[in-house]
Design brief:
The protein is built from 5 helices and 6 strands, in the order H-E-H-E-E-H-E-H-H-E-E. The strands form 3 sheets. A two-stranded parallel sheet has the order 1-2. Strands 3-4 form a two-stranded parallel ribbon. Helix 3 links the parallel strand 3 and strand 4.
Length: about 180
């Protein structure tokens, strides 16, 4: 059974004898706190912290369906989902077609007020997160990745960032 709790309820939940195991998808800081408490309570613990979730597309995939799922998987909640797809691994024989369709579908995402039905990309949670993202984008470009789309802050009062797509990213790069 899955139990979602607020931060105040975490310690109570971990120490509850009915809870056999703890799992968390979140930040390293949250993982340290949960891991320490789970260890003290001798509870099994699985922590997914700051991962780089892969989205794998094989040559026999329905390309349009794969692209639709990939765009949703990457950009839902303006891309601010810890389990969002972050790396796309695509078989060589379809990589060009997938990339072209993915960039086109991403380019079509409307940036703006998330309360409007036709908007898909809202503002980031905080300005410092937008600035941190911009630093990561600029570092990745300087490290040799190819920018296919986006890569800039949206000017104005809100903390928007253009949906960004790179190609040629290696494990050594910031992205």
């Amino acid at each position: 059974e899955v139990v979602n709790v607020t931060p105040d309820g975490v310690t109570r939940a971990i120490n509850d004898p009915r809870i056999a195991a703890i799992t968390l998808t979140g930040s390293v800081r949250a993982g340290m706190a949960i891991g320490a408490q789970a260890g003290a309570a001798l509870k099994k613990c699985v922590l997914e912290l700051g991962g780089s979730d892969p989205f794998i597309v094989l040559a026999d995939a329905d390309l349009d369906a794969a692209v639709k799922a990939a765009v949703i998987g990457r950009y839902q909640n303006t891309g601010q989902v810890c389990a969002a797809a972050k790396r796309f691994i695509v078989e060589d024989s379809i990589v060009e077609a997938f990339t072209q369709k993915f960039v086109e579908a991403t380019r079509a995402l409307k940036i703006g007020n998330p309360l409007q039905d036709d908007t898909y990309i809202g503002p980031m949670a905080r300005f410092d997160l937008r600035d941190e993202l911009d630093g990561q984008v600029q570092a990745t470009l300087a490290q040799g990745a190819t920018l296919l789309l986006g890569g800039k802050k949206v000017e104005g009062r809100a903390n928007f960032y253009e949906p960004t797509v790179f190609a040629g990213v290696t494990p050594q790069m910031t992205a």
